[in-house]
Specification:
Elements: E1 2-9, H1 21-30, E2 35-38, H2 45-52, E3 67-76, E4 79-84, H3 97-106, E5 110-112, H4 126-129, E6 137-141, H5 147-160, E7 164-167, E8 180-184, H6 190-199, E9 202-204, H7 210-228
């Protein structure tokens, strides 16, 4: 069966995300996706939220026709790394990429570096990629800073023979499904999706609109500025 899955998106549980979990679910249904991976930065809090509110189950099966894949975007010491199909602890920031890959594999998940050539974002660069046992490479990121960064990722994956993925990297719900992976799966489940990624998906490649790209940058700047705002001094 053919499944349309966005393999990289964020909710308000990411420091730079603004999407409400329910809005992501509604947007996925509106756009005809079969599912999406929730890959918040350094936290599985939204995975827990989806489970607690009945959108995701421990059996890895779809709920009301929509499959949510647990995941996380880990900020390793060498750059960002997607962990798909696993629920990881929230204290992994700064872990070496090699250790992160080993942990993901121990838990039965897939290790997929996103935006590896985007030098305006924290991708894992090629010298480190060469040392990692990767399951696939994100070669199309709808939010990439420059389009040539996607081409470089595609060329590297092709040369190494890695399966390729495409995703929106959505940080608000409207951007979900801008790009996605088209999977030929034997079953509609998390396990079926992971198996299909290993075989190599087809890619739905489309960039964020200028308005969505500006909104992503705007949300990022002001969300982080609010987080860095110093606490007022208490005068006795």
């Amino acid at each position: 069966m053919q499944l349309l899955i966005d393999l990289h998106c964020h909710s308000r549980f990411s420091a730079d995300g603004v999407a409400e979990p329910e809005a992501l679910v509604a947007e996925a249904r509106t756009k005809g996706l079969h599912g999406f991976a929730i890959t918040d930065h350094n936290t599985s809090a939204c995975v827990d939220y989806f489970e607690q509110h009945g959108f995701l189950n421990k059996e890895g099966l779809p709920v009301d026709g929509l499959l949510i894949i647990p995941g996380q975007e880990i900020t390793t010491a060498e750059g960002h790394l997607l962990a798909l199909g696993v629920r990881l602890p929230d204290n992994l920031k700064g872990i070496p990429a090699l250790e992160a890959v080993e942990l993901i594999h121990q838990e039965g998940g897939l290790a997929i570096p996103p935006h590896p050539y985007d030098f305006f974002r924290a991708g894992i660069r090629q010298p480190v990629l060469e040392t990692l046992d990767l399951d696939a490479l994100e070669v199309f990121n709808a939010a990439t800073t420059l389009k040539r960064y996607n081409r470089l990722a595609f060329n590297y994956a092709q040369a190494r023979g890695l399966p390729m993925t495409a995703s929106s990297d959505a940080h608000d719900h409207v951007a979900l499904g801008t790009a996605y992976s088209i999977l030929e799966a034997n079953e509609f489940s998390v396990a079926g999706v992971l198996e299909a990624i290993r075989k190599g998906p087809a890619l739905r490649q489309r960039y964020l609109t200028p308005a969505n790209a500006f909104k992503k940058t705007w949300n990022n700047v002001f969300r982080l500025r609010r987080r860095r705002k110093p606490k007022p001094e208490i005068v006795a």
